[in-house]
Protein backbone atom coordinates (compact mmCIF):
# COMPACT_ATOMS: atom_id res chain seq x y z
CA UNK A 1 0.00 0.00 0.00
CA UNK A 2 2.76 2.54 0.87
CA UNK A 3 4.54 1.58 -2.35
CA UNK A 4 1.32 2.15 -4.28
CA UNK A 5 0.88 5.60 -2.69
CA UNK A 6 4.49 6.45 -3.52
CA UNK A 7 3.99 5.52 -7.17
CA UNK A 8 0.75 7.51 -7.29
CA UNK A 9 2.34 10.68 -5.93
CA UNK A 10 5.42 10.23 -8.15
CA UNK A 11 3.15 9.98 -11.20
CA UNK A 12 1.20 13.02 -10.01
CA UNK A 13 4.40 15.04 -9.67
CA UNK A 14 5.59 13.93 -13.08
CA UNK A 15 2.29 14.91 -14.66
CA UNK A 16 2.38 18.22 -12.82
CA UNK A 17 5.91 18.83 -14.06
CA UNK A 18 4.98 17.92 -17.61
CA UNK A 19 1.98 20.23 -17.44
CA UNK A 20 4.14 23.03 -16.04
CA UNK A 21 6.83 22.57 -18.70
CA UNK A 22 4.17 22.37 -21.39
CA UNK A 23 2.57 25.55 -20.16
CA UNK A 24 5.95 27.28 -19.99
CA UNK A 25 6.74 26.13 -23.53
CA UNK A 26 3.34 27.33 -24.72
CA UNK A 27 3.89 30.72 -23.10
CA UNK A 28 7.31 30.96 -24.76
CA UNK A 29 5.75 30.08 -28.10
CA UNK A 30 3.02 32.69 -27.53
CA UNK A 31 5.51 35.38 -26.54
CA UNK A 32 5.30 38.02 -29.29
CA UNK A 33 8.17 38.34 -31.73
CA UNK A 34 9.96 41.19 -30.00
CA UNK A 35 12.07 42.75 -32.69
CA UNK A 36 12.78 43.34 -36.35
CA UNK A 37 14.65 40.08 -37.15
CA UNK A 38 11.68 38.00 -35.96
CA UNK A 39 9.27 40.18 -37.91
CA UNK A 40 11.31 39.74 -41.08
CA UNK A 41 11.40 36.02 -40.47
CA UNK A 42 7.60 35.82 -40.48
CA UNK A 43 7.32 38.55 -43.14
CA UNK A 44 4.64 40.62 -41.45
CA UNK A 45 4.38 43.83 -39.42
CA UNK A 46 1.27 44.35 -37.29
CA UNK A 47 0.37 47.96 -36.51
CA UNK A 48 -2.36 49.22 -34.22
CA UNK A 49 -4.01 52.60 -34.76
CA UNK A 50 -7.29 54.44 -34.24
CA UNK A 51 -10.03 55.23 -36.70
CA UNK A 52 -10.02 58.94 -37.57
CA UNK A 53 -9.77 61.30 -40.53
CA UNK A 54 -6.04 61.76 -39.89
CA UNK A 55 -4.97 58.20 -39.03
CA UNK A 56 -6.97 55.43 -40.70
CA UNK A 57 -10.26 55.00 -42.54
CA UNK A 58 -11.75 53.18 -45.50
CA UNK A 59 -12.92 55.15 -48.52
CA UNK A 60 -14.26 53.59 -51.70
CA UNK A 61 -13.26 50.25 -50.15
CA UNK A 62 -9.62 51.32 -49.92
CA UNK A 63 -7.62 51.76 -46.68
CA UNK A 64 -6.44 55.35 -46.34
CA UNK A 65 -5.20 57.86 -43.78
CA UNK A 66 -2.04 59.82 -43.07
CA UNK A 67 -0.68 57.43 -40.42
CA UNK A 68 -1.76 54.43 -42.50
CA UNK A 69 0.07 55.64 -45.61
CA UNK A 70 3.22 56.27 -43.56
CA UNK A 71 3.25 52.87 -41.82
CA UNK A 72 2.54 51.17 -45.14
CA UNK A 73 5.53 52.99 -46.64
CA UNK A 74 7.73 51.81 -43.76
CA UNK A 75 6.51 48.21 -44.09
CA UNK A 76 7.27 48.27 -47.82
CA UNK A 77 10.76 49.63 -47.12
CA UNK A 78 11.40 46.54 -44.99
CA UNK A 79 9.75 44.08 -47.37
CA UNK A 80 7.02 43.32 -44.83
CA UNK A 81 3.32 42.68 -45.29
CA UNK A 82 1.26 45.15 -43.24
CA UNK A 83 -1.59 44.11 -40.96
CA UNK A 84 -3.73 46.82 -39.34
CA UNK A 85 -5.57 46.43 -36.04
CA UNK A 86 -7.89 49.01 -34.51
CA UNK A 87 -8.01 50.13 -30.89
CA UNK A 88 -10.88 52.02 -29.29
CA UNK A 89 -8.73 54.47 -27.31
CA UNK A 90 -5.16 55.68 -26.86
CA UNK A 91 -4.93 53.64 -23.64
CA UNK A 92 -5.91 50.51 -25.56
CA UNK A 93 -3.20 51.26 -28.13
CA UNK A 94 -0.56 50.82 -25.46
CA UNK A 95 -2.21 47.78 -23.84
CA UNK A 96 -2.48 46.02 -27.23
CA UNK A 97 1.18 46.76 -27.90
CA UNK A 98 2.29 45.29 -24.56
CA UNK A 99 0.00 42.28 -24.99
CA UNK A 100 1.81 41.42 -28.22
CA UNK A 101 -1.25 42.05 -30.36
CA UNK A 102 0.72 44.62 -32.36
CA UNK A 103 4.37 45.41 -33.08
CA UNK A 104 4.04 49.18 -33.44
CA UNK A 105 1.57 51.92 -32.57
CA UNK A 106 1.01 53.81 -35.82
CA UNK A 107 -0.66 56.74 -34.13
CA UNK A 108 0.82 59.82 -32.42
CA UNK A 109 1.24 58.92 -28.73
CA UNK A 110 2.00 61.84 -26.41
CA UNK A 111 5.59 61.85 -25.15
CA UNK A 112 5.97 62.27 -21.38
CA UNK A 113 8.39 61.12 -18.70
CA UNK A 114 5.93 58.42 -17.68
CA UNK A 115 5.26 57.17 -21.22
CA UNK A 116 9.02 57.00 -21.87
CA UNK A 117 9.20 54.38 -19.14
CA UNK A 118 6.59 52.24 -20.92
CA UNK A 119 7.51 52.35 -24.62
CA UNK A 120 10.20 53.30 -27.11
CA UNK A 121 9.19 56.33 -29.17
CA UNK A 122 10.26 56.39 -32.81
CA UNK A 123 9.53 57.81 -36.25
CA UNK A 124 8.43 61.30 -37.25
CA UNK A 125 7.88 63.43 -34.16
CA UNK A 126 4.84 65.68 -34.25
CA UNK A 127 4.09 68.76 -32.19
CA UNK A 128 0.39 69.39 -31.82
CA UNK A 129 -1.55 72.22 -30.21
CA UNK A 130 -5.18 73.11 -29.82
CA UNK A 131 -6.19 76.01 -32.04
CA UNK A 132 -9.12 78.36 -32.50
CA UNK A 133 -10.97 77.76 -35.76
CA UNK A 134 -12.42 81.01 -37.09
CA UNK A 135 -13.85 82.14 -40.40
CA UNK A 136 -11.58 84.17 -42.69
CA UNK A 137 -13.91 85.57 -45.34
CA UNK A 138 -13.28 89.04 -46.69
CA UNK A 139 -14.32 91.51 -44.00
CA UNK A 140 -13.99 89.04 -41.10
CA UNK A 141 -11.86 90.16 -38.15
CA UNK A 142 -9.16 87.59 -37.43
CA UNK A 143 -8.30 87.08 -33.75
CA UNK A 144 -4.54 86.93 -33.22
CA UNK A 145 -4.21 86.83 -29.42
CA UNK A 146 -6.01 84.72 -26.82
CA UNK A 147 -7.02 87.87 -24.91
CA UNK A 148 -9.19 88.80 -27.91
CA UNK A 149 -11.35 85.76 -27.11
CA UNK A 150 -12.77 87.53 -24.05
CA UNK A 151 -16.44 88.22 -24.65
CA UNK A 152 -16.58 85.85 -27.64
CA UNK A 153 -18.80 82.79 -28.00
CA UNK A 154 -16.77 79.63 -28.54
CA UNK A 155 -18.65 76.41 -29.35
CA UNK A 156 -17.31 72.99 -28.33
CA UNK A 157 -18.63 69.52 -27.60
CA UNK A 158 -19.77 69.00 -24.03
CA UNK A 159 -17.33 67.08 -21.81
CA UNK A 160 -14.65 67.13 -24.51
CA UNK A 161 -10.96 67.89 -24.09
CA UNK A 162 -11.61 71.16 -25.93
CA UNK A 163 -14.14 72.23 -23.32
CA UNK A 164 -11.64 71.35 -20.60
CA UNK A 165 -8.91 73.44 -22.24
CA UNK A 166 -11.24 76.44 -22.65
CA UNK A 167 -12.24 76.23 -18.99
CA UNK A 168 -8.57 76.27 -18.01
CA UNK A 169 -7.88 79.17 -20.38
CA UNK A 170 -10.81 81.04 -18.90
CA UNK A 171 -9.21 80.69 -15.47
CA UNK A 172 -5.86 81.85 -16.84
CA UNK A 173 -7.46 84.94 -18.38
CA UNK A 174 -9.46 85.78 -15.27
CA UNK A 175 -12.80 84.94 -16.88
CA UNK A 176 -14.71 86.46 -19.75
CA UNK A 177 -14.88 83.58 -22.24
CA UNK A 178 -18.38 82.56 -23.27
CA UNK A 179 -18.06 78.79 -23.66
CA UNK A 180 -21.04 77.17 -25.39
CA UNK A 181 -21.07 73.42 -24.68
CA UNK A 182 -23.08 71.38 -27.17
CA UNK A 183 -24.39 67.87 -26.67
CA UNK A 184 -22.31 65.31 -28.58
CA UNK A 185 -25.24 63.26 -29.87
CA UNK A 186 -25.30 64.78 -33.33
CA UNK A 187 -22.26 67.06 -33.68
CA UNK A 188 -18.63 66.04 -34.13
CA UNK A 189 -15.56 68.26 -34.06
CA UNK A 190 -15.54 68.23 -37.86
CA UNK A 191 -19.20 69.29 -37.91
CA UNK A 192 -18.35 72.31 -35.76
CA UNK A 193 -15.51 73.27 -38.11
CA UNK A 194 -17.97 73.07 -41.00
CA UNK A 195 -20.39 75.29 -39.08
CA UNK A 196 -17.66 77.90 -38.61
CA UNK A 197 -16.93 77.82 -42.34
CA UNK A 198 -20.64 78.24 -43.14
CA UNK A 199 -21.02 81.12 -40.69
CA UNK A 200 -23.39 79.23 -38.38
CA UNK A 201 -21.11 79.68 -35.36
CA UNK A 202 -18.20 82.12 -34.90
CA UNK A 203 -15.52 79.97 -33.23
CA UNK A 204 -14.66 76.42 -32.23
CA UNK A 205 -11.53 74.56 -31.06
CA UNK A 206 -9.65 71.71 -32.71
CA UNK A 207 -6.32 69.91 -32.66
CA UNK A 208 -4.14 71.58 -35.26
CA UNK A 209 -3.65 68.42 -37.36
CA UNK A 210 -7.43 67.96 -37.58
CA UNK A 211 -7.76 71.66 -38.38
CA UNK A 212 -5.08 71.45 -41.09
CA UNK A 213 -6.86 68.54 -42.76
CA UNK A 214 -10.21 70.34 -42.65
CA UNK A 215 -8.68 73.45 -44.17
CA UNK A 216 -8.24 71.40 -47.34
CA UNK A 217 -12.05 71.17 -47.39
CA UNK A 218 -12.89 74.67 -46.13
CA UNK A 219 -10.63 77.31 -47.67
CA UNK A 220 -12.22 80.11 -45.62
CA UNK A 221 -11.13 79.07 -42.13
CA UNK A 222 -8.19 80.45 -40.15
CA UNK A 223 -6.39 78.07 -37.76
CA UNK A 224 -3.39 80.15 -36.67
CA UNK A 225 -4.40 81.09 -33.11
CA UNK A 226 -3.02 78.51 -30.65
CA UNK A 227 -4.55 78.20 -27.19
CA UNK A 228 -2.31 75.48 -25.71
CA UNK A 229 1.36 74.63 -25.47
CA UNK A 230 2.56 72.17 -28.12
CA UNK A 231 2.66 68.52 -27.12
CA UNK A 232 5.21 66.14 -28.62
CA UNK A 233 4.05 62.80 -29.95
CA UNK A 234 5.22 59.98 -32.19
CA UNK A 235 4.82 56.28 -32.92
CA UNK A 236 5.91 53.73 -30.32
CA UNK A 237 7.17 50.16 -30.02
CA UNK A 238 7.82 47.88 -27.04
CA UNK A 239 10.97 48.31 -24.99
CA UNK A 240 12.18 44.91 -26.22
CA UNK A 241 12.17 46.06 -29.86
CA UNK A 242 15.12 48.48 -30.14
CA UNK A 243 16.05 47.25 -33.63
CA UNK A 244 12.51 47.94 -34.89
CA UNK A 245 12.63 51.42 -33.32
CA UNK A 246 16.04 52.04 -34.95
CA UNK A 247 14.71 50.94 -38.35
CA UNK A 248 11.70 53.25 -38.05
CA UNK A 249 13.98 56.14 -37.05
CA UNK A 250 16.29 55.44 -39.99
CA UNK A 251 13.30 55.29 -42.37
CA UNK A 252 11.98 58.59 -40.98
CA UNK A 253 15.29 60.37 -41.58
CA UNK A 254 16.22 58.68 -44.86
CA UNK A 255 16.62 61.43 -47.45
CA UNK A 256 15.77 58.95 -50.21
CA UNK A 257 12.27 58.57 -48.74
CA UNK A 258 11.73 62.29 -48.12
CA UNK A 259 9.78 62.58 -51.37
CA UNK A 260 7.43 59.82 -50.27
CA UNK A 261 6.88 61.57 -46.92
CA UNK A 262 6.22 64.91 -48.63
CA UNK A 263 3.78 63.29 -51.05
CA UNK A 264 1.81 61.68 -48.22
CA UNK A 265 1.77 64.91 -46.20
CA UNK A 266 0.65 66.89 -49.23
CA UNK A 267 -2.12 64.39 -49.99
CA UNK A 268 -3.82 64.84 -46.64
CA UNK A 269 -2.85 68.31 -45.42
CA UNK A 270 -2.29 70.39 -48.55
CA UNK A 271 -4.20 69.12 -51.58
CA UNK A 272 -7.52 70.88 -51.83
CA UNK A 273 -10.51 68.61 -51.40
CA UNK A 274 -12.97 71.42 -51.94
CA UNK A 275 -15.66 70.53 -54.42
CA UNK A 276 -16.77 73.31 -56.69
CA UNK A 277 -20.17 73.12 -55.06
CA UNK A 278 -23.32 71.58 -56.38
CA UNK A 279 -24.00 72.64 -59.92
CA UNK A 280 -26.06 71.51 -62.88
CA UNK A 281 -24.46 72.31 -66.24
CA UNK A 282 -26.80 73.56 -68.89
CA UNK A 283 -28.13 70.91 -71.28
CA UNK A 284 -28.18 72.14 -74.88
CA UNK A 285 -30.21 70.46 -77.60
CA UNK A 286 -30.80 67.45 -75.41
CA UNK A 287 -27.09 66.56 -75.22
CA UNK A 288 -25.65 66.14 -71.72
CA UNK A 289 -22.05 65.24 -72.58
CA UNK A 290 -19.79 64.01 -75.39
CA UNK A 291 -20.29 60.51 -73.96
CA UNK A 292 -24.07 60.21 -74.09
CA UNK A 293 -23.96 57.25 -76.49
CA UNK A 294 -21.62 55.38 -74.13
CA UNK A 295 -23.89 56.06 -71.17
CA UNK A 296 -26.84 54.71 -73.18
CA UNK A 297 -24.86 51.64 -74.22
CA UNK A 298 -23.69 50.65 -70.73
CA UNK A 299 -26.84 51.65 -68.83
CA UNK A 300 -28.56 48.63 -70.36
CA UNK A 301 -26.42 46.35 -68.16
CA UNK A 302 -28.05 47.88 -65.08
CA UNK A 303 -31.45 48.57 -66.54
CA UNK A 304 -30.96 52.15 -65.37
CA UNK A 305 -31.77 55.40 -67.13
CA UNK A 306 -28.62 56.53 -68.97
CA UNK A 307 -29.15 60.04 -67.62
CA UNK A 308 -28.54 58.73 -64.10
CA UNK A 309 -25.15 57.40 -65.21
CA UNK A 310 -24.42 60.81 -66.72
CA UNK A 311 -25.23 62.48 -63.41
CA UNK A 312 -22.86 60.13 -61.56
CA UNK A 313 -20.11 60.79 -64.08
CA UNK A 314 -20.48 64.56 -63.81
CA UNK A 315 -20.30 64.29 -60.01
CA UNK A 316 -17.13 62.21 -60.22
CA UNK A 317 -15.21 63.87 -63.03
CA UNK A 318 -17.10 66.79 -64.61
CA UNK A 319 -16.90 64.59 -67.75
CA UNK A 320 -13.07 64.75 -67.77
CA UNK A 321 -11.73 61.22 -68.49
CA UNK A 322 -8.20 62.20 -67.38
CA UNK A 323 -9.04 63.58 -63.94
CA UNK A 324 -7.48 62.07 -60.80
CA UNK A 325 -8.97 62.94 -57.40
CA UNK A 326 -6.93 63.58 -54.24
CA UNK A 327 -7.82 60.04 -53.13
CA UNK A 328 -6.58 58.57 -56.42
CA UNK A 329 -9.92 57.86 -58.13
CA UNK A 330 -9.59 58.07 -61.91
CA UNK A 331 -11.59 58.41 -65.10
CA UNK A 332 -15.11 59.47 -65.97
CA UNK A 333 -16.64 57.34 -63.21
CA UNK A 334 -14.08 57.98 -60.44
CA UNK A 335 -12.76 54.43 -60.01
CA UNK A 336 -9.96 53.60 -57.57
CA UNK A 337 -7.04 51.85 -59.38
CA UNK A 338 -7.06 48.84 -57.02
CA UNK A 339 -10.78 48.37 -57.63
CA UNK A 340 -10.17 48.49 -61.38
CA UNK A 341 -7.39 45.90 -61.14
CA UNK A 342 -9.70 43.50 -59.31
CA UNK A 343 -12.07 43.84 -62.27
CA UNK A 344 -9.28 43.21 -64.78
CA UNK A 345 -8.92 46.86 -65.84
CA UNK A 346 -5.62 48.74 -65.65
CA UNK A 347 -5.44 52.34 -64.34
CA UNK A 348 -4.38 53.41 -67.83
CA UNK A 349 -7.53 51.87 -69.33
CA UNK A 350 -9.69 53.90 -66.93
CA UNK A 351 -8.79 56.99 -68.94
CA UNK A 352 -10.53 55.46 -71.95
CA UNK A 353 -14.17 56.68 -71.75
CA UNK A 354 -15.68 53.37 -72.86
CA UNK A 355 -13.61 51.28 -70.42
CA UNK A 356 -14.09 53.78 -67.62
CA UNK A 357 -17.88 53.82 -67.93
CA UNK A 358 -18.05 50.04 -68.32
CA UNK A 359 -15.98 49.59 -65.14
CA UNK A 360 -18.14 52.05 -63.22
CA UNK A 361 -21.29 50.22 -64.28
CA UNK A 362 -19.83 46.90 -63.15
CA UNK A 363 -19.07 48.40 -59.73
CA UNK A 364 -22.61 49.76 -59.49
CA UNK A 365 -24.05 46.39 -60.49
CA UNK A 366 -22.12 44.58 -57.78
CA UNK A 367 -23.03 47.11 -55.11
CA UNK A 368 -26.69 46.89 -56.07
CA UNK A 369 -26.61 43.15 -55.48
CA UNK A 370 -25.76 43.87 -51.86
CA UNK A 371 -29.18 45.45 -51.27
CA UNK A 372 -31.47 42.62 -52.38
CA UNK A 373 -33.77 43.21 -49.38
CA UNK A 374 -34.65 46.70 -50.69
CA UNK A 375 -37.51 46.37 -53.16
CA UNK A 376 -38.32 50.01 -53.91
CA UNK A 377 -36.36 50.88 -57.12
CA UNK A 378 -35.56 54.49 -56.15
CA UNK A 379 -34.47 53.49 -52.65
CA UNK A 380 -32.21 50.82 -54.12
CA UNK A 381 -30.63 53.44 -56.40
CA UNK A 382 -29.86 55.72 -53.44
CA UNK A 383 -28.30 52.92 -51.39
CA UNK A 384 -26.25 51.83 -54.41
CA UNK A 385 -25.00 55.39 -54.96
CA UNK A 386 -23.99 55.66 -51.30
CA UNK A 387 -22.06 52.39 -51.52
CA UNK A 388 -20.40 53.53 -54.76
CA UNK A 389 -19.18 56.67 -53.02
CA UNK A 390 -18.18 55.39 -49.58
CA UNK A 391 -17.97 51.60 -49.82
CA UNK A 392 -20.75 49.17 -49.03
CA UNK A 393 -19.45 48.43 -45.53
CA UNK A 394 -20.11 51.98 -44.38
CA UNK A 395 -23.67 51.78 -45.70
CA UNK A 396 -24.23 48.52 -43.82
CA UNK A 397 -22.94 50.24 -40.68
CA UNK A 398 -25.38 53.11 -41.18
CA UNK A 399 -28.24 50.62 -41.66
CA UNK A 400 -27.37 48.91 -38.39
CA UNK A 401 -27.20 52.26 -36.59
CA UNK A 402 -30.57 53.26 -38.07
CA UNK A 403 -32.14 50.03 -36.86
CA UNK A 404 -30.58 50.44 -33.40
CA UNK A 405 -32.01 53.94 -33.02
CA UNK A 406 -35.49 53.09 -34.27
CA UNK A 407 -35.22 54.21 -37.90
CA UNK A 408 -36.01 52.22 -41.04
CA UNK A 409 -32.83 50.51 -42.36
CA UNK A 410 -34.41 50.12 -45.81
CA UNK A 411 -35.18 53.82 -46.36
CA UNK A 412 -32.51 56.35 -47.26
CA UNK A 413 -33.83 59.88 -46.69
CA UNK A 414 -34.29 60.85 -43.01
CA UNK A 415 -33.34 57.34 -41.96
CA UNK A 416 -30.10 55.66 -43.05
CA UNK A 417 -28.88 58.94 -44.60
CA UNK A 418 -28.86 60.56 -41.15
CA UNK A 419 -26.59 57.86 -39.78
CA UNK A 420 -24.20 57.85 -42.72
CA UNK A 421 -23.72 61.55 -41.92
CA UNK A 422 -22.99 60.73 -38.26
CA UNK A 423 -20.22 58.27 -39.12
CA UNK A 424 -17.62 61.00 -38.58
CA UNK A 425 -18.42 61.03 -34.86
CA UNK A 426 -16.50 58.58 -32.61
CA UNK A 427 -19.66 57.96 -30.59
CA UNK A 428 -21.21 56.39 -33.69
CA UNK A 429 -18.34 54.86 -35.66
CA UNK A 430 -17.02 53.19 -32.49
CA UNK A 431 -20.45 51.74 -31.75
CA UNK A 432 -20.23 47.93 -31.53
CA UNK A 433 -22.69 47.55 -34.43
CA UNK A 434 -20.23 49.34 -36.77
CA UNK A 435 -17.51 47.30 -38.43
CA UNK A 436 -15.90 49.81 -40.78
CA UNK A 437 -15.02 52.80 -38.62
CA UNK A 438 -14.70 56.45 -39.54
CA UNK A 439 -16.27 58.01 -42.61
CA UNK A 440 -16.61 61.64 -43.62
CA UNK A 441 -20.28 60.85 -44.01
CA UNK A 442 -21.46 64.35 -44.83
CA UNK A 443 -19.84 63.90 -48.25
CA UNK A 444 -21.76 60.69 -48.95
CA UNK A 445 -24.93 62.35 -47.67
CA UNK A 446 -24.44 65.21 -50.17
CA UNK A 447 -23.24 62.87 -52.95
CA UNK A 448 -26.52 60.95 -53.12
CA UNK A 449 -28.65 64.09 -52.88
CA UNK A 450 -26.78 65.99 -55.57
CA UNK A 451 -26.74 63.12 -58.07
CA UNK A 452 -30.49 62.61 -57.68
CA UNK A 453 -31.23 66.34 -58.11
CA UNK A 454 -29.09 66.54 -61.24
CA UNK A 455 -30.73 63.38 -62.57
CA UNK A 456 -34.17 64.97 -62.18
CA UNK A 457 -32.98 67.95 -64.20
CA UNK A 458 -31.49 65.70 -66.91
CA UNK A 459 -34.79 63.85 -67.18
CA UNK A 460 -36.53 67.09 -68.06
CA UNK A 461 -33.90 68.44 -70.45
CA UNK A 462 -32.53 65.36 -72.21
CA UNK A 463 -35.19 63.10 -73.62
UniProtKB/TrEMBL annotation:
Domain named Solute-binding protein family 3/N-terminal: residues: 49-272
SMART domains noted in UniProt: PBPb (SM00062)
Tree of life domain: Bacteria
Localization per record: Cell outer membrane
Presence of the UniProt keyword Signal in the record: yes
Keyword annotations: Cell outer membrane, Membrane, Signal
Membrane topology note: Peripheral membrane protein
Signal sequence interval, chain numbering: 1-20
Signal found in the keyword field: yes
Protein family per UniProt: Belongs to the transglycosylase Slt family.
Name by which UniProt lists this protein: Transporter substrate-binding domain-containing protein
Amino acid sequence: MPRLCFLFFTLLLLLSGCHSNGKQQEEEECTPAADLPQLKEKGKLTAVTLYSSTSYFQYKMQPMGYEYDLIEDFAQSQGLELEIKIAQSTAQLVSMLHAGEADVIAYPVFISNQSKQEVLFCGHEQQTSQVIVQRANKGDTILKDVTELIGKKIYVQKNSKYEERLNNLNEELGGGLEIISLEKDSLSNEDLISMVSNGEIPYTVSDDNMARLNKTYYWNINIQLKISFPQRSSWAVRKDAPLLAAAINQWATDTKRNQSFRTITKRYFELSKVSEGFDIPEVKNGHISPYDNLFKKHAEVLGWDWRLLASISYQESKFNPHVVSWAGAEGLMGIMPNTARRLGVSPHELKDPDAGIRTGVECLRRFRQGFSEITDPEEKIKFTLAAYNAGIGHVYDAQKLAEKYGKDPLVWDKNVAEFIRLKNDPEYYNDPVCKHGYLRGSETFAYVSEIMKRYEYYQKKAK
